[in-house]
Specification:
mainly beta
Length: about 230
């Protein structure tokens, strides 16, 4: 794997040399003719996992996010009816604000939010009514690529690292520094949840999501990152 420059460096990472930055930026941002389009960011480190996803589905957006920690409730955010705005990556719903900024195509993104999550003692509740305790949460995360993007069905995925902080009620802030990360950008007529390798055991903390189209993503946090839980 090619090592990137230090976060915040003004020099492009080696795999960016010779790329068309204008074309890359167009690829990273909204494809107006796509029926569905999704940007998904994940990160993990010992004792902490983070998910932040946004999908445009016709005339509305689906937003979901999670924070998981061993021995702590699942911090779970969903809004399946976000009105689209002139800036398609700006998310404003009922009590929800989130933004996704491409600072440098194929190199750096800023992912932020401020909202109320639901704290769930039982992750299985996330697939049902998701009744739990309202909990204020805010992400302020910088995503840096550590490798070139790789094609996946309907788009691409890219490995990286995350720096930043998650402000969570009852904590002094959850800090991420050089935390391993993965992101996806996909588009097409109909998207299903991202396919992950299966977890060999399901003893880790989980972040399930039940999408409005009837599909489910049930992810478990393992030492190697997020994996799909066999259902």
């Amino acid at each position: 794997m090619t090592e990137p420059d230090a976060p915040g460096s003004s020099h492009p990472a080696p795999w960016v040399d010779g790329r068309n930055r204008v074309a890359d930026l167009a690829l990273e941002l909204r494809h107006p003719d796509a029926g569905h389009e999704e940007w998904l960011f994940t990160s993990w480190m010992p004792g902490l996992g983070v998910i932040s996803g946004y999908r445009i589905v016709g005339r509305v957006g689906w937003y979901w996010a999670a924070v998981v920690r061993p021995g702590e409730p699942l911090i779970h955010v969903t809004d399946w009816a976000v009105p689209l705005r002139s800036d398609p990556l700006l998310v404003k719903g009922d009590g929800l604000w989130a933004d996704h900024t491409c600072d440098s195509p194929m190199q750096q993104w800023t992912v932020v939010n401020e909202t109320y999550a639901t704290a769930l003692d039982d992750p299985d509740e996330a697939i049902g009514r998701a009744y739990g305790d309202p909990t204020a949460v805010a992400f302020d995360l910088e995503w840096y690529a550590t490798d070139a993007p790789q094609p996946v069905g309907g788009g691409y995925t890219q490995a990286g690292v995350v720096h930043g902080v998650i402000e969570l009620a009852g904590t002094a802030g959850l800090h991420l520094e050089e935390a391993p990360a993965q992101r996806w950008h996909r588009w097409g007529d109909h998207l299903k949840p991202v396919l992950l390798p299966e977890a060999f055991a399901h003893v880790g903390v989980r972040a399930p999501f039940a999408f409005p189209d009837g599909t489910v993503a049930d992810w478990a946090l393992t030492p190697d990152g997020w994996r799909a839980r066999r259902r």
